[in-house]
Design goal:
The complex is a heterodimer. By secondary structure, chain A is α/β, with parallel strands linked by helices. In chain A, the strands form two sheets. A six-stranded mixed β-sheet of chain A has the order 6-7-8-3-9-10, sandwiched between helices. In chain A, strands 2-1-4-5 form a four-stranded antiparallel β-sheet, with helices on one face. Chain B is of the alpha+beta class. Helix content of chain B is 57%, strand content 18%. Chain B is built from 13 helices and twelve strands. In chain B, the strands form two sheets. In chain B, strands 3-4-9-6-8-7 form a six-stranded mixed barrel. Chain B has a two-stranded antiparallel sheet with strand order 2-10. In chain B, helix 2 packs antiparallel against helix 9. Chain B starts with a helix and ends with a helix. The model of chain B has no long low-confidence stretch (mean pLDDT 88). Classes of the chains: A alpha/beta, B alpha+beta. Chains A and B meet through helix 2 and helix 3 of A and helix 10, helix 11 and helix 13 of B.
Chain lengths: 242, 398
């Protein structure tokens, strides 16, 4: 794999609030993500990993520092420019699944295509293809309430994949699942990564981080340690425990 | 994209069908009230116009009134002649005099009035003959015992199966032959029933019933190219001279122009309609506030959904358009139901009040456009609030 940075962070800081109440969540983050990498961001709560994810996902902008996505500086973009960037290159998977209630699985998956202005037939075809990748075509017409947590998260992954994004951002994707479903999801993400999609994942579970190629440890708003070239796969004993 | 937005709006409304209906109730009632009021106003105007037009058009009514000492001096045949001959612009003048009589036919009796008139009177007041004929000039001159009866008289004392034309009937002690039946005129200004009347030649009524040459009132038909004000001045001067009124003495007669009555009444009803419709329109504004209220609740309720949409790349204006579309669809839906309700109400009330129902496409169209505008105006603020949400905060919202 060519060493080609898709994401570059240089001296990123983020301060919330002003004056005496100001709180510096990020104190200067530098790291790159290469195309095709699978990065797990780890750290205790309050370590700044979620703030970093929000910035990486172009949902938020840093207080200072430079964030380049595919060589373009994001920190100076407007809200709508960042929306268009998300629409085009990013897919999101959240801890709480965040599917639209009372909306069928296939309609949920179609949602990002709606904002791309795709035709109805094209939307449906792409959504079914994405659902096929997560093995949920038989559940296409079911609403989230009729699906298990694992199935809901797979619908959410299908929704993130339907636009064929460059980068998949996953914020605690296994946080609401039991360990067996968690492993299923992680194995699926690892497989996806094999097909060339760059994955950025936030987790506080060391077991889940084992699936990543690169693990970034956060502590008190700084990068504490980066483990590159990690051996991918489930650690011994985890599968048996689930 | 817009089709999809519309689809999303419909889906969201269907999801909360009861709430959507209650929300739009204000708009429904407002639109229905405005349409009903305006339609009824139209009906009243048309009804009054019809009644006034039964008086005849471009016609003056000239009638005696009490003078300062409470005396009442009638006109006579010579006043009619003077009007006819001395005023420019007058097409013809018809005198009328009436007496209450009892009409008897075949043992049936009926209280009515005998009106002494000439054919010109029928012309001036637009009275049509439904059956039979009008007077001949010989009958007018000689004061023949012939009569043209009203539809009420016919109904009350003649059998329905048989034409009364050619029959002989009695009016008090006078026997006369029915030569015609006039078409229904309705009643004017609550002056009894104009269909309950019998026309006879003027000279006959003067000779047989009133016993003098008095004229009750005159109908003066004028050429519409002459000004009503100039004619009034000329006629007043003539009548003052004929009735020997000194300078400073008030007129002991009066005259009205039917065209003027028409204008006045139409203007009055028009003003009242606008006023009542304006009051009804206030409920539209109240309805708009209701829409805004529910849309704000909806934005709060769907904060997470908005967060998801923003996260996957929806632009602020796309979110705004979605919520705005929802508000507009709600209001248009309310407008349509309101139009249907207004149609039902105005039709029902018109029928119940005996008014003509006149469908007014303008007010229906306007009501619909206004409801859509209310959707845009009152939906904009909640929609803007939705589009301004921070996606991170919105996603965290429980």
């Amino acid at each position: 794999m060519t060493r080609e940075p898709i994401i570059e962070l240089e001296g990123i800081t983020k301060t919330f609030g002003v004056g005496a109440a100001a709180f510096q969540a990020l104190k200067g983050i530098d790291f790159d993500v290469e195309r095709g990498d699978f990065v797990a961001v780890m750290g205790a709560s309050g370590s700044g990993k979620s703030t970093t994810m929000n910035i990486l996902g172009c949902l938020d902008v840093p207080t200072s520092g430079i964030y380049r996505f595919l060589g373009t500086e994001v920190q100076s973009m407007t809200r709508d420019q960042r929306s268009l960037l998300r629409r085009k290159y990013l897919g999101f998977v959240f801890q709480g699944f965040n599917l639209l209630a009372r909306t069928t699985a296939v309609e949920n998956v179609e949602l990002p295509l709606l904002y791309r202005g795709e035709k109805k037939e094209a939307r449906r075809a792409a959504a079914l293809k994405a659902l096929d990748r997560v093995g949920l075509v038989p559940w296409a017409e079911h609403t989230p309430a009729e699906l298990s947590g694992g199935q809901q998260q797979r619908v959410a992954i299908a929704r993130a994949l339907v636009t064929e994004p460059e980068v998949l951002l996953a914020d605690e994707p296994t946080g609401n699942l039991d360990s067996e479903r968690s492993l299923e999801i992680m194995e699926f993400l690892a497989e996806l990564n094999q097909t060339g999609i760059t994955i950025l994942m936030v987790t506080h579970e060391a077991d889940m981080a084992q699936f990543a190629k690169t693990i970034v440890h956060f502590k008190d708003g700084l990068v504490e340690q980066v483990e590159r070239g990690h051996r991918q796969g489930a650690p011994l004993g985890v599968g048996a425990a689930g | 994209m817009f089709g999809t937005t519309l689809l999303l709006a419909f889906r969201e409304i269907r999801r909360h069908i009861l709430r959507s209906f209650l929300t739009t109730l204000g708009i429904i009632i407002g639109v229905a009230a405005v349409i009903t009021m305006v339609t009824l106003g139209r009906g009243v105007t048309a009804d009054i116009e019809k009644q006034i037009s039964s008086l005849g058009s471009n016609v003056f009514f000239v009638f005696p009134i009490q003078n300062e000492r409470g005396q009442w001096r009638p006109f006579d045949e010579r006043d009619v002649m003077a009007m006819r001959e001395q005023i420019a612009g007058v097409k013809f003048v018809a005198g009328q005099v009436e007496r209450n009589v009892v009409a008897i036919y075949n043992g049936q009796d009926w209280r009515t009035k005998a009106e002494g008139v000439e054919n010109e009177f029928l012309d001036a007041r637009g009275i049509k003959i439904e059956e039979g004929r009008r007077f001949t000039s010989a009958e007018e001159t000689s004061g023949a015992n012939v009569c043209i009866i009203g539809p009420t008289v016919r109904e009350e004392i003649f059998p329905t199966s048989q034409s009364p034309v050619g029959e002989r009937m009695r009016l008090d002690n006078v026997s006369c032959q029915v030569i015609g039946v006039f078409a229904t005129r309705g009643s004017v200004g609550g002056n009894g029933n104009d269909d309950n009347s019998i026309f006879m030649p003027l000279t006959n009524v003067q000779r047989r019933f009133t016993g003098n040459n008095d004229i009750g009132y005159m109908v003066v038909a004028y050429d519409s190219s002459y000004s009503s004000a100039a004619l009034t001045r000329a006629m007043v001067a003539l009548m003052r001279e004929r009735r020997v009124l000194l300078e400073g003495q008030a007129n002991d007669f009066d005259m009205v122009d039917t065209a003027k009555i028409n204008e006045t009444v139409a203007a009055t009803v028009g003003t009242m309609t606008v006023m009542v419709a304006a009051i009804a329109a206030i409920s539209l504004i109240v309805g708009g506030v209701g829409i805004m209220n529910i849309m704000l609740v909806s934005v709060t309720e769907r904060t997470r959904e908005i967060g998801i949409r923003l996260a996957i790349g929806a632009l602020a204006r796309e979110v705004r358009l979605q919520f705005l579309t929802e508000a507009v669809v709600l209001c248009c839906f309310g407008g349509m139901v309101g139009i249907l309700l207004g149609f039902g109400l105005s039709l029902g009330l018109s029928t119940a009040l005996g008014l003509p129902y006149i469908f007014d496409p303008f007010i229906n169209g306007l009501s619909f456009v206004i409801s859509a505008l209310i959707g845009i105006i009152f939906g904009y603020f909640p929609a803007r609030r939705a589009s301004k949400l921070d996606p991170i905060e919105a996603l965290r919202h429980e």
